[in-house]
């Protein structure tokens, strides 16, 4: 008999318990669920701290919560009660995989849970490596990024809007689960993986040489506004106020940019006067202000549509600055197979994404996020084999809503 396997669900058959809030761990759990794992998010009765996080619908439902919990199942339980804690630890033991950013609770610590499931995989996200607390914005403040973000004449720190370390940490956490599953398949052993959010930020700063350049060269990265460090790139404004980001990474890009803006002779004269070699991307970066002054006039004489059409005929890397509303209405969303139309209860109808990678040409699709506690009875029945009488007894004891 031929067994049909869905290539977009490589983790089918894997069960995962998630206790989480905010971004990193919910993103990890959703990523694993969209790849086929059965992920049950367990929340306290009434919801965790992120259940009503903005943005909200007019009726007060969290669009944010629905966005990070697609494809999961939801169970609520009183985790302060002995009966509730017993239910949770039994579910973790049944699944064999536990994903959380709720640390410091002895009853679901790794040593305690291993007594129920010796080959348990437990992935924990924390704030700082020293055990301290931290969120994306506080971690970011302590690494250095806000002091090299923003305009060159700015003295104040500038936070970026994207919670980069939460997102990166969530993907590292999902990867940790997958690699631990492979390890368990090969050895029969579980693993306890800890991922401090701060370490994700530090590793990224190190990998991108932001820390290394200080250690080796004694220099600290400068603020450069919208320029691109080490090569040529910056923003330009058209005659109608339209804004574009333009990047010339290679010599071909740079030649095309000078040809487009009819500045080839001026750029050559500038190179002679400065003794510069603009075939070197480092020198293009060093003299970026002088070069930008030459290019800016062409942009200022053309409308956004004219600029887009002209840039589209070159090898130059570019994009027009757009709002989220403009992006949502564009073909990159409306005609993109990554997006699937969802009828999300309590939220409405919208285009939603699954995992942003095509597997054998197909994107793993999104599914709706559950309402809080939607799957409590089903999970207790399916995973633990509890009948209606025992579930009712837990409810009567206050362990379930």
From TrEMBL:
It comes from the Bacteria. GO terms for molecular function: catalytic activity. Pfam families: CoA_transf_3 (PF02515). This is Dehydratase. It comes from Mycolicibacterium obuense. The lineage of its organism: Bacteria, Bacillati, Actinomycetota, Actinomycetes, Mycobacteriales.
